[in-house]
Write a structure and sequence with these properties.
about 170 residues; mainly alpha; DUF456 domain-containing protein; membrane; transmembrane; transmembrane helix
């Protein structure tokens, strides 16, 4: 049973890393689940401090994933229309069956939102849309780093207690 949980946790780690790059999957959440599964084995002793800290980190990163693209839009001069457009475009871009919809959606959403706000200033709308993409990429990079951190922690814990698994 321990070997099964170890393999399942490892798969969660890999899917979490992939999910940090694809907005359809909650990468940090799946990676955290891999850490939780590790502690259900009889070999690795449960460390509730590690689980608590990684849970808080997962929740914060998941929250920031939705906030940072909108903040990027605002930082680059976008209005509330652009921020709402970014969020709506992000959701629609994930659902839409188009390639790279998760990148195109926030950009188009911010651009259209800014054009609704002020249709005469296309340069401002493009700048705000660029900010939404930069914010989205920053958020994705943060998720990727957190998932890599969780993976390193997982490998470290398994390596330290490896004699009990095989």
């Amino acid at each position: 049973m321990d070997t099964f949980l170890l393999i399942l946790g490892f798969c969660c780690m890999l899917i979490g890393i992939l999910g940090s790059l694809l907005p359809v999957l909650p990468g940090p959440g799946i990676s955290w689940l891999g850490l939780v599964l590790l502690y259900f084995t009889n070999t690795v002793p449960a460390n509730y401090w590690v689980l608590s800290i990684t849970l808080v980190l997962t929740l914060v990163i998941s929250y920031l994933d939705y906030i940072i693209p909108a903040k990027g839009t605002k930082h680059f001069g976008g209005s509330k229309f652009g921020i709402w457009g970014t969020n709506i475009g992000l959701v629609l871009g994930i659902i839409a069956p188009i390639p790279f919809g998760f990148l195109i959606g926030p950009f188009l959403g911010a651009f259209i939102g800014e054009l609704i706000y002020d249709s005469t200033n296309k340069k401002r709308a493009f700048r705000a849309a660029t900010g939404s993409i930069i914010g989205f990429l920053a958020s994705t990079f943060m998720q990727f780093l957190v998932c890599l951190l969780f993976f390193g922690l997982y490998i470290s814990l398994v390596w330290r207690h490896k004699e009990g698994f095989f």
